[in-house]
DNA sequence: TCCTAGATAGAAAGCGCTTGCTGTAACGCT
DNA sequence: AGCGTTACAGCAAGCGCTTTCTATCTAGGA
């Protein structure tokens, strides 16, 4: 039924070994023979059996990309950039690799399970994007799993995620702390003294780092933070909306709201508007990431731009071994403060 | 070095066959034996060799999801919904399948290459999302490829894409034409008579169908379309911005701009604002898809809501054989007109 | 002209798993 | 007590490819 290597060999009047060598191009084959084989491949419409090939060669051409939320452009942009470097179809890369993105939905268990599945497939490389979960048991499990993958020859790259010591993983880490600090300092510089903060889910590195940056800025300027000023939520618009209403309820005198990311900031803007407050006249708003839609908010969002595409591309290249890993295996990627219309001097 | 089935068998004092059966759970194994095997698996930290398993069983647990642009939430939302039904980790599904999304970037060649790669891997199913390219050669190539995949036992589902006759593919098609028509009729009903249209890339089914719906509405109301009123572009914000400026240049008397999708509409809004025009007082704007950010535009975007998540979930279930395919293999998914602030009665 | 090295091609041994078929023991029935 | 079942477990034959080792042939070199 299905065409096999042997069929091609028969048709080309050569041995299966020769066909394999032509297809893999890692062994000298006479030009005339090669051509004959290629013609047979074409005529029979032969498609290599991936599993058989992977089994025999003990390697596969699968590269996994793990993301927390595929519906979020934050991850979509990174994943797209990574995948384009993985090569896959049309990529710049040589070997045709299958770059596949796996959606963990932010669940630690799914993250682990996907890793196992990729381990099963003997993936050539794995890129993990975005923040990690900080719960100790999960971190330990992840470390063990990553180490095992690395031992099996899978190259591991972390993109926008803190380093995982002793796992053999390369890391391109976003400077979330620095970005958060810069953002809040900008607001403080404008004169704000009462700033609400809508954080992401707890136990996430991204959440913690951005919040730490925010607090560092506050304390550096002698502003004592009121515990009521921080609310945790998910990384989505809805959460931003609700959290903002909560902040307003807790302390109506806030003059600025800093959001965990741009989607949350959008929700915050909506909540403020629905509460009859003007942006930035009554309350300034700031986001994080600078996703494409952020500039279309009205007023445009003040935020921290993260070079998602660049970082993703670099991570992809490192995963493919086409770029030197950073010295020490770790590199920090900085964000850039984008001051736009949503932040202004506080009223009064 | 690596642990194999045989190692587990030895440790559990059973034959490899038994271990395999315990792991696959498709053959009676005594409870005590099963437990012993499972313990051995655990102690040795055994991970199944995917390729070997796929080769022997002549099937794999890979399910491919093809998207045109992974950075676009339109696809991200569908992909996420599909993947969650594919099961994979944490999904409701039983068998652990690896749902992987492949980013074609809208390139026909990449689409084909990904399909070949998935064919190589003997994918269990493939879901293709979003509009298709209409160039005849490519369509023929796609048909042939899909048919071949289907023949090899891969289940094919099209989600948000027109049916592919005689390929054995199931289709969940979006009623882009109907949605486009309804949207434009809404604007006409408000009194608009001069409507600009920003279409997507040419040779795309989605582009053509939405545009046809728009034109059907116009002619149904006796409005003769001026060729200057249509501009083609990409499905992104930037394109919407530029196209809007172009439309304004061609005919400043337009009172409404209909965009190919919400991102384009956002760009259109920005262009209008930058041109000193108010929305909807001077010009009404309408989008398509109703992505999450659309409600946050100011004013909120009038658009056609497509049930992306629902359609994706259903496509995923069909791909997994957990839901009956629609009768005739084809189902049409309708959109819902969402009237919001960006559309109003024309000035004067 | 004979010998050796270089260049290709083939034979065959797996890679690690699945599964049809073959035992074998325990069970229920008459 | 004897026999047909039923319930498990094992054997062994591949699945389709890669790769090491060996064989063959041709081109130089002495």
From TrEMBL, chains A, B:
<dbReference type="GO" id="GO:0003700">
    <property type="term" value="F:DNA-binding transcription factor activity"/>
</dbReference>
<protein>
    <submittedName>
        <fullName>LacI family transcriptional regulator</fullName>
    </submittedName>
</protein>
<keyword id="KW-0804">Transcription</keyword>
<dbReference type="Pfam" id="PF13377">
    <property type="entry name" value="Peripla_BP_3"/>
</dbReference>
<dbReference type="InterPro" id="IPR028082">
    <property type="entry name" value="Peripla_BP_I"/>
</dbReference>
<keyword id="KW-0238">DNA-binding</keyword>
<dbReference type="InterPro" id="IPR010982">
    <property type="entry name" value="Lambda_DNA-bd_dom_sf"/>
</dbReference>
<dbReference type="InterPro" id="IPR000843">
    <property type="entry name" value="HTH_LacI"/>
</dbReference>
<dbReference type="GO" id="GO:0000976">
    <property type="term" value="F:transcription cis-regulatory region binding"/>
</dbReference>
<dbReference type="InterPro" id="IPR046335">
    <property type="entry name" value="LacI/GalR-like_sensor"/>
</dbReference>
<keyword id="KW-0805">Transcription regulation</keyword>
<feature type="domain" description="HTH lacI-type">
    <location>
        <begin position="3"/>
        <end position="57"/>
    </location>
</feature>
<dbReference type="Pfam" id="PF00356">
    <property type="entry name" value="LacI"/>
</dbReference>
């Amino acid at each position: 039924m299905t065409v096999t290597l042997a069929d091609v060999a028969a048709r080309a009047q050569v041995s299966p070994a020769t066909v394999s060598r032509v297809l893999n191009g890692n062994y000298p084959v006479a030009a005339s023979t090669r051509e004959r084989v290629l013609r047979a491949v074409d005529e029979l419409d032969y498609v290599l059996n991936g599993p058989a090939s992977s089994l025999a060669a003990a390697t596969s051409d699968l590269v996994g990309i793990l993301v927390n939320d595929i519906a979020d452009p934050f991850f979509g942009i990174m994943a797209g950039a990574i995948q384009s470097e993985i090569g896959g179809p049309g990529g710049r890369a040589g070997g045709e690799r299958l770059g596949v993105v796996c959606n963990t939905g932010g669940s630690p268990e799914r993250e682990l399970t996907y890793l196992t599945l990729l381990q099963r497939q003997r993936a050539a490389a794995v890129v993990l994007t975005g923040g990690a979960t900080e719960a100790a048991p999960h971190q330990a499990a992840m470390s063990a799993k990553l180490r095992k993958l690395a031992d099996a020859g899978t190259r591991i790259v972390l993109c926008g995620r803190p380093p995982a010591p002793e796992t053999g993983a390369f890391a391109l880490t976003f400077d979330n702390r620095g970005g958060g600090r810069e953002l809040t300092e900008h607001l403080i510089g404008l004169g704000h003294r009462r700033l609400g903060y809508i954080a992401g889910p707890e136990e996430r590195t991204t959440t913690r780092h951005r919040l730490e940056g925010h607090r560092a800025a506050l304390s550096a300027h002698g502003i004592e933070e009121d515990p009521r000023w921080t609310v945790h939520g998910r990384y989505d618009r809805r959460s931003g909306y609700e959290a903002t209403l909560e902040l307003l309820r807790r302390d109506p005198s806030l003059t600025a709201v800093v959001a965990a990311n741009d989607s949350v900031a959008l929700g915050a803007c909506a909540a403020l508007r629905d509460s009859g407050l003007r942006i930035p006249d009554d309350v300034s708003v700031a986001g994080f990431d600078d996703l494409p839609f952020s500039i279309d908010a009205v007023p445009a969002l003040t935020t921290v731009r993260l070079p998602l595409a660049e970082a993703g591309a670099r991570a992809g290249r490192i995963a493919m071994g086409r770029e030197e890993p950073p010295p020490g295996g770790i590199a920090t990627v900085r964000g850039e403060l984008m001051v736009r219309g949503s932040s202004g001097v506080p009223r009064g």
